[in-house]
Amino acid sequence: MSWDWEFAFEVFPDIVGAIGVTIGATVVAYLISLVLGLVFTLLRRSSFKPLSLLMAGVIEFIRTTPPLVQLFFVYYAFPMSPFTTGAVVLGVHYATYVSEVYRSGIEAVPTSQWEASKALNFSKAQTWQKVILPQAIPPVIPMLGNYLIVLFKETPLLAGIFVTEMLQVARIIGADTYRFLEPIAIVGFLFLVLSYPSALFIRYLEKRSGKLHGSAEKGVKT
Amino acid sequence: MTEEVVDNEIKESENENENIVVSYKDVKKAFGDTVVLNDLSLNVAQGEKVALIGPSGSGKTTIIRMLMTLEQPTEGTIEVDGEMLWHKEVNGELLPADEKHMRKVRGKIGMVFQQYNLFPHMTIMRNCTTAPVNVLGISKDEAKTRAQEMLDKVGLGDKVDNYPSQLSGGQQQRVAIARSLVMQPKVMLFDEVTAALDPELVGEVLEVLKDIAAEGDTTMMLITHEMEFARDVADRVLFLDNGKIAEHGPPSEVIENPQTERLQAFLGRFNNS
Ligand SMILES: Nc1ncnc2c1ncn2[C@@H]1O[C@H](COP(=O)(O)OP(=O)(O)OP(=O)(O)O)[C@@H](O)[C@H]1O
Ligand SMILES: [Mg+2]
User: Where is the ABC transporter domain (chain B) (predicted)?
Assistant: First the structure.
């Protein structure tokens, strides 16, 4: 099979047209993972033992089963649109990874910060909100950003449940024209074009997070 | 041994007439199998300045951490303003207090730590206003006014927009003191607040503490290795040894005229400095 530029240019707009679905699914799934990940982390740290154990079990279960299996299962078990199913399942799956990132950030905050909060009589909720999370999250923003890129690259899985993201569109074109090479290559190219700047941006964040609070730029607010 | 216990009890009855703010009753503290405090009974009167001295590991920090609710007593009770801190009495039975109760009582206590423990992500001003606004519920403006007043008092009124990392250790510790003062606690606890400082910065922090002590109304419990400072500031000095109050009394007795060999040996270490 040889490369056909004319065909490539012809199908390019169709595939680019699906970029919105890919990005949409990524953004929705990512937001779910950021919020749910934090909820997972906090519930795991609950002083009510049964709850934290249950949470640990749930997280372990989600993390150790393949996302594609989860996608199929939820797709056939619940009456949700393919897009919703995809975004929710990926979001929940990645929440377990994101939760681990939050945990590492939280554990890096010294015990003395908890003690100082107690000495000022903050409530538990206030301590989290005002003292712990604002210190735990900025250092892990690069790691969180990394998961955004990983998640983005995982969206072709959604083709498995017929979400018309880029790979699915490429497959449809391929099935119609019996030419797969160009559509698939275009999908890869588009992923590269989107991922690479994001990766650069995250590297920039990584550099910045080294110098929070009190160094040259003190405008870093959380 | 028995003599000391009797002695403790005499001191208690003497205090009965005064307004007692903090009262430890037969408090025992163990970490696992290691008992670090035994049958501690101690009353502190309103406005009193109590210095805790003693060798490393004698239990000084543990005593004040239990009052700050950072460490739970194994046995016995602690009262603040006549109210139990760790317990609640329900139908004549002592039950562990819930967080709501503890928060209410804890509000009367403030603490300054050896390592300052400022919030690194907040400016000096926000370090001093976040708790008053969120915990005491006062307005932002009022909190700022109060904080400015306290920061002026510790000589750092011009540092409000800085971050802790931009301050020297001595300055950070003075901020920590101001932050605690803004909350207007009845009792303030100080755990070796100059121990982490370079020698040339110790003086500025001790000066601030002396000023606060001189104002009189705040009850203070200070752990210190600065004997001269303890003598100047304290109304009463407690010498902790092996989890017990081995000697206590006004500085003129305890520091100037130690009775036990242990205390004499302990003080002897400070004489060269
Ligand atoms: N969290 C803990 N777990 C186990 N043992 C502890 C803990 N905290 C304190 N201890 C032990 O309790 C004893 C008393 O400690 P504490 O910190 O009260 O002594 P201290 O008089 O303040 O000593 P220093 O002058 O060194 O600060 C020590 O033997 C210490 O090792
Ligand atoms: Mg100590």
Answer: 22-267
Closest CA to B56 of B42, B40, B70, B36: B36
Give chain A positions within 8 Å (CB) of B113: 112, 115-116, 119
Residue B119 backbone class (left: φ over 0; alpha: ψ -120 to 50; beta: rest): beta
Chain A residues inside the 8 Å CB shell of B130: 120, 130
Q: Is A174 part of the contact surface with chain B (CB cutoff 8 Å)?
A: no
Domain ranges of chain B: 3-108+185-271, 124-184
Interface probe with A: pick from B70, B103, B117, most Cβ of A within 10 Å: B117
Domain B3-108+185-271 has CATH 3.40.50.300: yes
Q: Tell me, what's the ipTM?
A: 0.90
Q: Cα B136 to chain center, whole Å?
A: 21
The pTM is what?
A: 0.88
Tens digits of per-residue pLDDT, B122-166?
999 999 999 999 999 999 999 999 999 999 999 999 999 999 999
**Is the Cβ pair B180, A135 closer than 8 Å?**
no
**Please, what are the domains in chain A?**
5-221 (1.10.3720.10)
Quick one: A173 exposed, middle or buried, by C-beta within 10 A (0-12, 13-18, 19+)? Answer: buried
